[in-house]
Amino acid sequence: MTSGGEIGETKEKLETPMPEKYIVNLSTEERKYLHQLTHKGKYPARRFKRAQILLLSDEGHADETIARMLHVGESTVHRTRQKCVDGGVEFALSEQPRPGGKRKLDGRAEAMLIATACSDAPTGQKRWTMQMLAARLVELQLVDSISDETVRRVLEKTTSSLG
User: Fold this and answer.
1) Residue 66 burial (CB < 10 Å; 0-12/13-18/19+)?
2) Which of 22, 39, 75, 98 is within CB 3.0–4.6 Å of 81 for a Cys-Cys bond?
3) Which of left, alpha, beta for 60 (phi over 0: left; psi -120 to 50: alpha)?
4) Are 150 and 104 in contact (CB under 8 A)?
């Protein structure tokens, strides 16, 4: 083979392991709480994994080892440790709100969209298209602009049929 390397050749890992700067030391109550969380009840998968990460961290396992054991990324383990040290167990287990785009349509505009979609199609048309509905919302000055995909998603939430 040419300079591309041999098949089966291993390459050195370019990344350096994350520093073990965040040491998790759980109290007896915290450890008991996490054990209960991982053995009883139904919890969201992320919360469950984070509890497992904290328990294994408390036992002294390295990030890489925990990541392999739980089939998660090392950065997940590192961030969970960091959150625990910075804000406590509950903070490390909790899900922070995720930023999302501002809604294009408020309740009034959604109601108008649905009413328009359920009304008779414009003259010469068999049915409303997503593009025509989007144009109608702009025409009614309910929004400055809106994509036909946004219109489709809003209508998808309803049980109405357009045809």
Assistant:
1) buried
2) 22
3) left
4) yes
Tokens of 133: 């509905």
Residue located via tokens 């959604």: 110
pLDDT per residue as tens, the chain (163 positions): 444 444 444 444 444 554 557 899 999 999 999 999 998 878 888 999 999 999 999 999 999 999 999 999 999 999 999 999 999 999 999 988 778 778 888 889 999 999 999 999 999 999 999 999 999 999 999 999 999 999 999 998 876 555 5
Say if pTM beats, i.e. exceeds, 0.85.
no
Q: Please state at what angle helix 28-39 crosses helix 45-58, rounded to 10 degrees.
A: 140
- DSSP 8-state class, residue 5: -
- By CB atoms closer than 10 A (0-12, 13-18, 19+), residue 109 is middle
Q: Please name the amino acid found at residue 98.
A: R
